[in-house]
Amino acid sequence: MNYPSTALACLCLLFVSGAQNPERPPHGFDTQHLAWLTGTWEIKDGEKTTEETWFPLKGSMMFGVSQTYTPKRTTFFEFLRIMVKKDLVSYIPQPGGDPPVAFLMTELDDEVAVFENTEHDHPQRIRYERTENGMTATISLLDGTIARSFVFTRKAEAAK
């Protein structure tokens, strides 16, 4: 078998095996449940501020951005996406502009959105929860250990 035929056969095998992967079921989630996430959320800690802004779902994607800063400098930033692709919902962060890492949605309702990636070192689970006074984002391992929570209050409603 020559190289182009071998490459084509490998691509076909990857396509077929990916389409039949039982660990990646269709999402079946109503992404409109994510509407509460839109807007700007804030954490104040002395002079340090963290803001996370989510834009409304347009087409098959929501965009977000997070920035932690003091009056003199930015100490952290992250590009964020939640997208529907091939009937799966994924949360895709890029902390510090690093390469993207996908976390598949495992739970969604009007109050909670959970995303998981069993292959990632840390975090393996990212959980957003709507609370009475704002939103809490928690990162952890799948078993809930090595958890860190970020408690946000709403700073601004979403841009239309």
How are the secondary structure elements laid out?
Elements: H1 3-19, E1 39-45, E2 48-54, E3 61-69, E4 74-85, E5 88-95, E6 103-108, E7 112-116, E8 125-131, E9 134-140, E10 148-156
Antiparallel strand pairs: 1-2, 1-10, 2-3, 3-4, 4-5, 5-6, 6-7, 7-8, 8-9, 9-10
Kindly report how far apart the N and C termini lie: 55 Å
Q: Rg to the nearest angstrom?
A: 18 Å
What low-confidence regions span 5 or more consecutive residues with pLDDT below 50?
A: 1-25
Question: Largest sheet at a glance?
Answer: 10 strands, antiparallel, barrel
Q: What's the number of domains?
A: 1
CATH architecture: Beta Barrel
**Helical stretch count?**
1
- Estimate the mean pLDDT confidence: 84
